[in-house]
Known about the structure:
Structural class: mainly alpha
Amino acid sequence: MAQQEHGGNANGFFxxxxxxxxxxxKKDLPASIVxxxxxLPLCLGIALASGAPLFAGILTGIVGGIVVGAMSGSQLSVxxxxxxxxxxxYAAINxxxxxETFLLAVVLAGCMQLVFGLVRxxxxxxxxxxxxxxxxxxxxxxxxxxxxxxxxxxxDADFEGDxxxxxxxxxxxxxxxxxxxxxxxxxxxxxxxxxxxILNIWPKVKxxxxxxxxxxxxxxxxxxxxxxxxxxxxxxxxxxxxxPIVNSTTExxxxxTTPDFSGILSRGDIWLTAVTIALVASLESLLSLxxxxxxxxxxxxxxxxxELIAQGTGN
Length: 315
């Protein structure tokens, strides 16, 4: 079967005219708001589950959105902290002894990804069988439904964005669903049902379709949560997104952590962690890129080597 090459863009990494068109702003702006509101709890949840500071999750989302988003040739993918790397990151932080040392491994992994892109290692994506991509898409759909059910009924023991079968609270996906049924929060159920109805009905009404349904869902969900406060169906504090708050400029800058370069030449475990992160993150990115291209209505092909360079720069 003929393979279609995922080439680079001759116009460079920052082709503003191609990706930032004024005529698309009407749809791009509300879409970006929805992506932001959906990505924020994911960034925080993944950081929490990884044993990293919450601010690191927010910062990773910002870098993924601005740096990787601007450099990547994909017009549909969204970059940020990866739930698939949660277990690796958690183990690495503990094994390396400090978060600062782990950051060094991330920097080294980013350099390796840059090399992968420059030597055109992204060509490996051309050899992913279509059955693998379709199977992955189907699996993602099933995982999303099963993982979101507990959150939809108000049981939030597991962090938002977890894709693992065995969870950090020692339950698995199936037992979490059974447990969630016995701990229903009716306020959460009402919000979930109303949101699903809007997502299905809103786009079918032409006069309403001007405003994206997901944006309406986010706004209405927030309003309902505020209305339910103080009532018998009020959401618990675990069901809200907790954003780190700083009280001064000094406190804000203290949130930034720099890598500890002292062990770069003496510790082999740092390099082993870097290689692991680089390989797993690169393969996951390429698979995700292929999956997004697969469902693109106009069948655009994203440049895989450019994606690796963008991901490496972000790290």
